[in-house]
Amino acid sequence: METAIHLDSMVLSYLAHAMAPGYEPGRDPDLDSERIAALRLLMVTSGLGVGNTAAREALETPDHVHRVEIQLLIDSTLLEDEVLPELHEAYESRVAELQRVHPEENDCRILAEAEMCRVRVLLTFDKTMQRRLAPVANVEVVFPSVEWDRLAATSPRAISVPHPTNPLSRRDFWKWS
Q1: What domains can be seen in the chain, in order of their start residue?
Q2: What DSSP string describes 79-147?
Q3: What is the pTM of this model?
Q4: Which of 6, 65, 90, 167 could cysteine-pair with 114, CB 3.0–4.6 Å?
Q5: Is 17 helix (H, G, I), strand (E, B) or coil?
């Protein structure tokens, strides 16, 4: 299966938060809208994935419970992509090129992985990363809410929904009309 959308580490963490049994929207409207958009994208997209750098970075959280939630999400739900060995030199070259406009090495690695894996979109809520890297990226670099709004305009149907035993099935914050 081809990955169409990659998550950066921040969005990966947001998605894990939104899927957690105790998640309650309303504490931070900006972050809540991004978490909910990421969850909705998961339900309408079969090609949601993550690269090695984003996964490794997200799993560095000191919160053990959240780290387990992230690992479970990666293991059970997301496509895991890695740069092919024959593209490693081009990948490292691209990382160095991106660092000329954005000093955060992991952000540059996340974008370069998305480009090498030929995804269509990289989701981030890192405003600095988006501002600096989107203009030079070979993939779209957008917030989850932007991608959701674009897809919502086509009235998407869910390809997966929470099982009745999943606590999300009894919640409605993620539903759309």
Answers
A1: 5-170 (3.40.50.1010)
A2: EEE---GGGHHHHHHHHHHHHTT---HHHHHHHHHHHHTT-SEEE---HHHHHHHGGG-SSEEE-HHHH
A3: 0.88
A4: 6
A5: helix
